Amino acid sequence: MSVVAASVISMNELTGITYLKGDATSPHGKGRKLIAHVCNDAGGWGKGFVLAVSKRWPKPEQEYRRWHRDRASSGFALGAVQVVQVEQYVWVANMVGQHGIRTGSNGPPVRYDAIDTALAQLAAEARDLAVSVHMPRIGCGLAGGNWERVEPLITARLTTARIPVSVYDYEEAA
């Protein structure tokens, strides 16, 4: 499977978010980078964007599973963030922003308040590490979220804090 190199599609003047076609696990541009994605609170790791993360780096999955296993004392909860260094200048942020893994009587697993809380913590981590943030459309795949609700959270927590954000729409080569 080959992937089209990331290419800039647009820069949203209102949100400050750069949109690209490509793979968020191969972030575009120079400098230090943090790749953010949403995880569930059930300890499951095996579908969606996490597969691409694990294919490239095993450590984020290992750390997430340890974090969940030790949840009674590790701080693992909705809205929590775990930052894992995977290369000298690249980190992955596991953000707990979905409750469970299936749509049920309470709607889809996405939890916008948890994503907002996680993004606030992510902003602090991004400032401390002096990184740009790269992500797929978090919370909008298997979590069942709506980008029109997630994008303003990213704007409020990251781009208004002058943290560069790139959002990737994955596209496989034909």
UniProtKB/TrEMBL annotation:
<protein>
    <submittedName>
        <fullName>Putative phosphatase, C-terminal domain of histone macro H2A1 like protein</fullName>
    </submittedName>
</protein>
<dbReference type="InterPro" id="IPR043472">
    <property type="entry name" value="Macro_dom-like"/>
</dbReference>
<feature type="domain" description="Macro">
    <location>
        <begin position="4"/>
        <end position="174"/>
    </location>
</feature>
<dbReference type="InterPro" id="IPR050892">
    <property type="entry name" value="ADP-ribose_metab_enzymes"/>
</dbReference>
<dbReference type="InterPro" id="IPR002589">
    <property type="entry name" value="Macro_dom"/>
</dbReference>
<dbReference type="GO" id="GO:0140291">
    <property type="term" value="P:peptidyl-glutamate ADP-deribosylation"/>
</dbReference>
